[in-house]
Design brief:
368 residues, alpha/beta, Arc Repressor Mutant, subunit A, Nucleotidyltransferase, domain 5, 3 domains, five-stranded mixed β-sheet, 12 helices, globular
């Protein structure tokens, strides 16, 4: 069947994604991975070689048969910008065409910043990346906190920026930079970062835990991000909490610091450092039990493989999170034998921006 230009563009983009990810490193492997005939695969590969987007060199010896020419992407073919923010800062990264992390920068957001200042800082961060970048910018990904509308590129709601309601994010950046701009919730882009740069490379089902200023989760299910009917899947911080209030009030990173420190006031700026100093406090057992309850609820609902922990609460250490896992099976005995691992992510604070760049990279399609 003859394909339309849109279908061809998507197919070519899929070829590049399979090669970039390492899932397909030869023409034969690419044909098998994509379910295409060898002749069709060869046409697309030749087109991309001629366009200087793929390279074919070296030999790869499989367990049987003749050695195969190895496919790879061309790093200099262009780059992707990823920007992610919350109420305190904007983080940005540059990723080359081969998906390699090339540069990181961070810009603080002054206290009380509103929507206009945030959008100015997002654009300034991309311009700062472009100032030192070789090649051309191909796309921008944005990770925004709270509820977003990825289709329209709008930030719908975020409680920690006072006027963040129905904010156009993607369109102004697309006008400024002349490239496609994609928007997603910041925890969901962190889930993409785990797939491209972290421990989720070989997993189809995992959950990112994000107890930061609020508390949300991102769900990777059968290899795809789960967003929900209203783009609000994972807003678990809004769950009613035993004793009153919402889960944000008990298990966000600032709330945990207040519980462990035994104080009622604003959390310190360097929250990761402050939490590390409180890792062995007696109140930690009560906090661990509360997290165990949440982990148990999520696992009974989602039956996932791994929980990846991000944010300041990584400072509490493996001992705390091992206790959380142990307490989950005490509270919910039916989880014995199927409670997933709770892993402190290997990715640093740039994970959200890396994920936003991954979003741009996955969304990019060439002109045909």
């Amino acid at each position: 069947m003859r394909k339309t230009p849109v279908e061809q563009s998507r197919l070519i983009a899929d070829v590049i994604l399979h090669v970039r990810s390492g899932r397909a490193t030869s023409r034969r492997g690419l044909a098998n991975e994509m379910g295409l005939s060898p002749s069709t695969t060869g046409l697309y590969v030749d087109m991309l070689l001629a366009g200087n987007l793929l390279v074919e060199d070296g030999l790869e010896q499989g367990p049987v048969g003749r050695p195969k020419r190895r496919l790879g992407t061309v790093p200099e073919a262009g780059w992707f910008a990823g920007v992610e923010f919350h109420a305190g800062r904007v983080q940005a990264v540059r990723v080359d065409f081969s998906g390699r992390h090339a540069h990181t920068l961070q810009r603080p957001l002054p206290a009380g910043s509103g929507r206009d200042r945030v959008r100015q800082e997002l654009a300034a961060a991309v311009r700062a990346l472009a100032a030192t970048a070789p090649g051309r910018l191909l796309g921008i990904g944005v990770g925004a906190p709270g509820v977003v509308d990825p289709v329209r590129g709008i930030g719908l709601q975020y409680d920690f920026i006072h006027d963040w309601r129905d904010v156009p994010v993607a369109a102004p950046l697309a006008v400024d930079f002349g490239v496609p701009v994609t928007l997603e919730n910041n925890l969901r882009v962190i889930a993409l970062a785990e797939r491209w740069f972290g421990g989720g490379r070989d997993l189809d089902d995992y959950v990112v835990l994000g107890p930061r200023r609020g508390f949300g989760v991102a769900i990777m299910h059968r290899g795809s991000l789960f967003s929900g009917a209203h783009q609000a899947a994972g807003e678990v911080g809004n769950w009613a909490w035993p004793g009153g209030g919402e889960m944000h009030d008990a298990l966000s990173a600032p709330a945990v610091w207040r519980r462990l420190a035994g104080v009622d006031g604003p959390a310190p700026e360097e929250l990761h450092v402050a939490l590390a100093a409180l890792a062995d406090q007696p109140a930690g057992h009560e906090v661990a039990t509360d997290f165990a309850r949440v982990i148990g609820w999520l696992q009974l609902l989602l039956d996932t493989e791994v929980f990846f922990l991000h944010g300041p609460l990584t400072a509490l250490g493996a001992g705390f999170w091992n206790e959380v896992a142990a307490q989950a099976t005490v509270l919910m005995p039916r989880l014995r034998g199927r409670l997933p691992r709770i892993l402190v992510s290997d990715l640093d604070d740039a994970a959200g921006a890396l994920g936003a760049a991954s979003l741009a990279m996955e969304s990019w399609q060439p002109a045909v």
